[in-house]
Amino acid sequence: MAETWRILSFFHEATSTASHLAIDGASGEAAAIDPVLDYEPANGRTSTEFADAMLAALGEAGGRLRWVLETHLHAEHLTAAHHLREKTGARIAIGALAPKVQAIFVAKFGAFDVRPDGADFDLLAKEGDRVPLGGQSIGVIDTPGHTLGDVTFLAGDAAFVGDTVFMPDYGTARTDFPTGDAVALYRSIQRLHRLPDATRFYLCHDYRGPGRTRTELVTTAAASRANVHLAAAADEPAFVAFRQAKDKTLGPPRLLAASIQVNIRAGRMPPPESDGRVYLRIPVNGL
Question: Which one of 67, 101, 107, 154 counts the least CB within 10 Å of its CB?
Answer without folding.
Answer: 107
